[in-house]
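re: ur question from the group chat, yeah i did fold both. here u go
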Amino acid sequence: MQPFYKDREIADKRVALTPSTWKALHSLRTPGKSLGDTVADLIAEHQKRMLERDLEEIDTGGHFVPWDEAKRKLGL
């Protein structure tokens, strides 16, 4: 038997939250979205911020070489 939602995962886990965390999470939920969708959005936003932070760190403190030199050193 195939799941009803082909492109979506079926939620099968529960997470224990304190009342204050539940209230905070619920306040972030937008109409039409589930709490699971809200958590997924928060995760995506966190990952985006981590990537931006890492790229900023590389940009300010990284050592860069011309692409042709990098290819030669890597044997590409």
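okk and heres the other one u asked abt
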Amino acid sequence: MKNIILFTNMSSIKKHWENALKNSYETVCIENFDTLAHYLKKHNDKIILMLDEMSVSNIDDALLKLKKYPNAIILIFNAIPEVYHAATLLGSGIKGYENSYLNKENLLKMLTTVEEGNNWLFADLTYFIINKYIQNKNKDEPDFVPLLTEKEKNIASMIAEGLSNKEIAQREKIALSTVKGHIHHIFEKANVTDRISLALKFK
């Protein structure tokens, strides 16, 4: 899957996206929603749609109309991403939500993630969901906890509390790269691929 639709009428966002994606993806730039609908109707292959939220008058209405086109993998972007608003969009079939000016490295990582069938949520939203919706009510340990080292148990608990990698590194007084290594092992032992799934196991 190498074609991507860039839907925005903001020249600065369009330029940022085009520069980040050149040499990696073929891009089709569309500024009008009717033109977008016509394009999706004509092309039945799976295609990623990078949708600038500021370029549509009503995002809920736009997403409702886009449900007619299951071939579109929808990613929402906003120049000022808002955590609570993003959380309300999760049930609308979107596969990702990010800052419009996400740096090239992370944008490419985001696209790879959704191409593999996974969702992509910006970090603040992940922590918001864990803190707001996945509170640790059950004090019984999940089945995988005995497989963890003491350090991994501590870090897993902190992830379940909604702490970021940086906060864990500061609390444990270890390098950020070390935290990432521990999290990789924790995910393997817990048989999960993301922080939210891990936190749910502690629910």
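fwiw on the second one: The radius of gyration is 19 Å. The chain has a mean pLDDT of 86. idk if thats what u expected
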